[in-house]
Design goal:
2 copies of one chain form a homodimer.
Chain A: H1 8-15, H2 19-26, H3 34-47, H4 53-60, E1 65-70, H5 76-91, E2 95-100, H6 105-117, E3 122-125, H7 132-141, E4 145-148, E5 159-162, H8 164-177, E6 183-187, H9 193-209, E7 219-221, H10 226-238, E8 243-246, H11 249-261, E9 271-274, H12 279-283, E10 289-292, H13 295-310, E11 319-322, E12 325-327
Parallel strand pairs in A: 1-2, 1-3, 3-4, 4-5, 5-11, 6-7, 6-8, 8-9, 9-10
Antiparallel strand pairs in A: 10-12
Helix pairs in contact in A: 1-2, 1-3, 5-13, 8-9, 10-11
The first copy, chain A, binds a DNA duplex (16 and 16 nucleotides) through helix 2 and helix 4.
Function (chains A, B): Global transcriptional regulator of carbon catabolite repression (CCR) and carbon catabolite activation (CCA), which ensures optimal energy usage under diverse conditions.
GO molecular function (chains A, B): DNA-binding transcription factor activity; transcription cis-regulatory region binding
Organism (chains A, B): Apilactobacillus kunkeei DSM 12361 = ATCC 700308
Chain lengths: ~325, ~325
DNA sequence: CTGTTAGCGCCTTCAC
DNA sequence: GTGAAGGCGCTAACAG
C-alpha cells in the first residue's frame, strides 16, 4: 500500500498532455477540445486522481473554505444558524472550519488569528459581544466577514439579524394587552448589546407607550442558562411579577419549569414569552409563546452575503434585517 | 491599504538571517542561538507576520486540521459530541472542518472526498449507518479515521462508544422490575445498526431473562423525530403498552408529550426511559429517566484517539467503550 | 486549443 | 548554529 501520490503531473503524462491542460479541464476552463477533455477525464478516473486542495490554495490564493466562529455548537440557537450556514456554503462549494469561542474574547481573537493564517476566504462570526478589540481585529484582517444573528451596534461589519428591539416591544405589548403591568425582563448578560441596547429598549418603549412606569427592579440579568431561569423563578414569584419576556429559550425553559414546579400555573397566573423559537419552545409544556426567528435563514442569508462579498459582487444592503413573527402558544393567554 | 504580503522571506531579510532560520524559530527548532531567535521574534512581531498555513501544509504535508462529519449539528446528541471533539482538537492545535451529512450516504461519500482533497490529517465520523461502500471508502482513504458515538458492527475503524445493548437491557429490566410486561421499544430507523443490532438486542435479552415473550408488535420503528414520537403515542395507547424505551431523546420527548397531551399520566400509567440524556431530558416535565451517556467525553476521547493515530503512537485499544449510568428521574416509578 | 515557465510561501535536507 | 537550494502540487500568465 503506497500513499496517494498521483499528482496532476501523473495524469498529464498518462494522457499525453501538459499539466496546464489537465488543470484546465479540472477547472472547467472551456478552452479545451472535447476529445482531449474526455481523454484527460478518463485518465483522472483510472488513476483515481484527486486534486490537492492545499496546493491549489497556495497557487490560487483561494481555499474555498470559510471560518465560522460560534459561541457554542451545543446551543440550539447557534447550531441552527450554523446549519443554515453550512448548507449554503456547501451549495457554493465552500467548506467550513467551525470553532467554538464560548463568547470569550481571548478565544475569539486567537481563533480569528488561526483562521486567517489558514487563509480562509471569509468568516462568519457569531457572538454576543463585539468589543473594540474585536472590531479592530476585523478591520485589520482584510478578510470578508459577516455577522450572523449577532449584533454590532457600530455596524462595522455586514450582518444578518432580525429587529430584536421591535420584536421584544411587540411581545411586551401583547403582555400588556393581556392585562399585565408587572412584567419582568429576564435577560442574559447585559454586556451583550442585543440585550442591553436592543431588547431592553424594546421592552422599555412598550412600557412607556402604555403608560407603565419602567421599574429597574423588574430587569433580571442572568447568564442566560436553563438553571439561571429555574432559580430566577423564585425571585419572580416573590416580586409578584405576572409575566415575563425572556431573551433566550433555555432561560425561558428554566423560568417556565421553575414557576410550574413551584406551583404557579402558566399561563393563568404567569405569562411568558421567549425569543428564539428553537425546537425547545414546542417541546416545553405548556409550549412557549415566542418570537419566531428564521434561524436557519439567518445563517443561510449570512453565508450567501459572504459569498457575494468574497466574489466582489455589488451589495445593495450590508445590514440585512430579516422579518420575524410572533407565535402565541400556551405560555401566554 | 495593501494586502497582507509579509512572508517568511520578508522577516528573514529584515532580521538579517536566512528563511531557514526563521522557519526554525517558527517551528521551535532548538538549533538556533538564543540571540538570533529573539531578534527574529522581534521582527516577526514588528512586521505582524503570520505564517501561511496553506504553504506550510503543502510543504510539510500536514494541515493541522481534521474533518468532522456529522449528521446534523442541530441534533443535541451530535452537537455535544462535536463540542468535545472541538475542545480536544483545539488543545492539540487542530482545527475542525465540520460537514453535515444528514446521514445521507451520497453526501457522506462526497464530503469524505472533499475532506480528503483538502488534505485533512484525520477524520472523525459520526453517523448512524455505516454501509459497505462507506467502509470501502474509509479503507481506501489511507487517512486516520475514528468513529465517535457511532457504531460499525464490523469494527473496521477505531471507535468510541458506550455499550448500547447493555444500557438498553438495563433500562428494560428496571421497567420490568417496576411491574411492566408490555414494554415498547420505540426506535429510530432500524437501518441503523445501533438500533437493530445493539439496542434491540438488549431489549430482547432483558425480556428473555425475565420470562417475557418478545412481541414484535411492540417494536415501533420511526425516523426518530419529536413529531414521530408525538404521533406514536396514540398507537402506544391503543396497544395498551405500559412502558417504553426510546432510542433517542427527541423521540422520547415526543412520546412523553404525546402521552401527556392525550391524558395519560406519566409515570403512573406509563413509564418511559430514554437513551442519550441530552439537555432536553431535564427540561421535560416530567423529567426523563435516561441512560447518561458521557457525550462530551465520547467526542473528546475520539479526538484524543485520533491524535494518537495521526501521531503514530502505540494504541492499546482501538475500540473504546466508555461507561454509562442510568439516572431515574420522573418518567419512571 | 495547448504547452512552457514561473512562482505561491514554506519546510527540509545537505553543506558549511 | 546557519545558509543555500530544491521541491510540495497546482495555477496563471504568456507564448505559440
Amino acid at each position: 500500500m503506497e500513499k496517494q501520490n498521483v499528482t496532476i503531473y501523473d495524469v498529464a503524462r498518462e494522457s499525453g498532455v501538459s499539466m496546464a491542460t489537465v488543470s484546465r479541464v479540472l477547472n472547467g476552463n472551456s478552452n479545451v477540445r472535447q476529445a482531449t477533455k474526455e481523454k484527460v477525464l478518463k485518465v483522472i478516473d483510472d488513476l483515481d486522481y484527486r486534486p490537492n486542495a492545499v496546493a491549489r490554495g497556495l497557487a490560487s490564493k483561494k481555499t474555498t473554505t470559510v471560518g465560522v466562529i460560534i459561541p457554542d455548537v451545543t446551543d440550539g440557537y447557534f447550531s441552527s444558524l450554523a446549519r443554515g450556514i453550512d448548507d449554503i456554503a456547501t451549495m457554493y462549494k465552500y467548506n467550513i472550519i467551525l470553532a467554538n469561542s464560548d463568547d470569550n474574547p481571548d478565544k475569539e481573537a486567537s481563533v480569528l488569528n488561526t483562521l486567517l493564517s489558514k487563509q480562509v476566504d471569509g468568516i462568519i462570526f457569531m457572538g454576543n459581544e463585539i468589543n473594540d478589540d474585536l472590531r479592530a481585529d476585523f478591520k485589520r484582517s482584510d478578510c470578508p466577514i459577516v455577522l450572523a444573528g449577532s449584533v454590532d451596534i457600530n455596524n462595522s461589519v455586514p450582518s444578518v439579524n432580525i429587529d430584536y428591539a421591535d420584536a421584544v416591544k411587540n411581545e411586551t405589548e401583547r403582555l400588556i394587552k393581556n392585562g399585565n403591568s408587572r412584567i419582568a425582563f429576564a435577560s442574559g448578560s447585559m454586556k451583550q448589546d442585543v440585550n442591553k441596547k436592543y431588547r431592553l429598549k424594546g421592552y422599555v418603549s412598550a412600557l412607556e407607550n402604555n403608560g407603565i412606569k419602567f421599574n429597574e427592579k423588574l430587569v433580571f440579568e442572568t447568564k442566560g442558562t436553563y438553571e439561571d431561569g429555574y432559580d430566577l423563578a423564585e425571585q419572580i414569584i416573590n416580586d409578584k411579577v405576572t409575566a415575563a419576556v425572556a431573551t433566550n429559550d433555555e432561560l425561558a425553559a428554566g423560568i417556565l419549569n421553575g414557576m410550574t414546579d413551584r406551583g404557579v400555573s402558566v399561563p393563568q397566573d404567569f405569562e411568558l414569552f421567549t425569543s428564539n423559537n428553537t425546537k425547545l419552545a414546542k417541546m416545553m409544556r405548556p409550549q412557549l409563546s415566542s418570537i419566531t426567528q428564521p434561524l436557519y435563514d439567518i445563517g443561510a442569508v449570512a453565508m450567501r452575503l459572504l459569498t457575494k462579498i468574497m466574489n466582489k459582487e455589488e451589495i445593495d444592503n450590508r445590514y440585512v434585517v430579516l422579518g420575524y413573527e410572533i407565535v402565541e402558544r400556551d405560555s401566554t393567554k
